[in-house]
Amino acid sequence: MNLDFSFYNWDLISNFVLKGLYFSLVLTLVATVGGVLFGTVLALMRLSGKKWLDIPATIYVNGMRSIPLVMVILWFFLLVPAIIGRPIGAEVSAVVTFIAFEAAYFSEIMRAGIQSVPRGQVYAGQAMGMTYSQNMKLVILPQAFRNMLPVLLTQTIILFQDTSLVYAIGAYDMLKGFEVAGKNFGRPIEAYLAAAVLYFAMCYALSWMVKRLHQKIAIIR
């Protein structure tokens, strides 16, 4: 097997890879923000103590976490257009699917973070006359967010890796950019190897940064 990476140059990277990398990063950012917001709502529903809120949230979270992401991507991409009667596009489908799916995982992280706050903090807020929402907003969530920040960032790295699955519906992500470049130059093996190296380098660097952040937070505690 003769590998030849000489066809790689800046023009190839800028024309094929950067476009896909941009979409992968945007999808990661939007899905993280949307997933955290939706996940926080789900976590609060599960911690509310009210069955009419707890049960639907529990079913949603456990259901989503029991289904492979690629199946959710395909279902949404194929079923939603059939229901509404018009296509929504691979990119929009990927964004909505990732937010809905990742919210289930972020919800469990948020719930664990909220429960990690000592009960004395909750009682202190109640003693000061705070309502449930004020106590959650001003006392509990800020402390919980600090506790779970490393885990949130780790899940975001996993989310970035999972963006390669949008390849199944034809969205132009980073992996798709490498594939197109490889086909155009007749070097698919080299293209997939280069994609694997870039994914590894980015995720390893981000994981190292999360590890350092976790150490700093541990020192502050």
Automatic annotation (TrEMBL):
Pinpoint the ABC transmembrane type-1 domain residues.
Answer: 21-210
- What CDD domains does this protein's entry cite? TM_PBP2 (cd06261)
Q: How does this chain sit within the bilayer?
A: Multi-pass membrane protein
GO annotation, cellular component aspect = ATP-binding cassette (ABC) transporter complex
The protein's matches in InterPro entries, at most eight in alphabetical order, are given as: AA_ABC_transptr_permease_3TM, ArtM/GltK/GlnP/TcyL/YhdX-like, MetI-like, MetI-like_sf
Q: Please give the function described in this protein's UniProt entry.
A: Part of the ABC transporter complex GltIJKL involved in glutamate and aspartate uptake. Probably responsible for the translocation of the substrate across the membrane.
Instruction: Tell me which SUPFAM superfamilies the record gives.
Output: MetI-like
The listed locations are: Cell inner membrane; Cell membrane
Q: Which residues cross the membrane?
A: 20-45, 66-84, 90-107, 151-172, 192-210
The record's similarity note reads:
Belongs to the binding-protein-dependent transport system permease family. HisMQ subfamily.
The GO terms describing molecular function are: transmembrane transporter activity
Query: A GO biological process this protein is involved in?
Result: amino acid transport
Instruction: Summarize subunit and interaction data from the UniProt record for this chain.
Output: The complex is composed of two ATP-binding proteins (GltL), two transmembrane proteins (GltJ and GltK) and a solute-binding protein (GltI).
Q: Which organism is it from?
A: Acidovorax soli
Q: What is this protein called?
A: Glutamate/aspartate import permease protein GltK
The record's keywords, sorted A to Z, are: Amino-acid transport, Cell membrane, Membrane, Transmembrane, Transmembrane helix, Transport
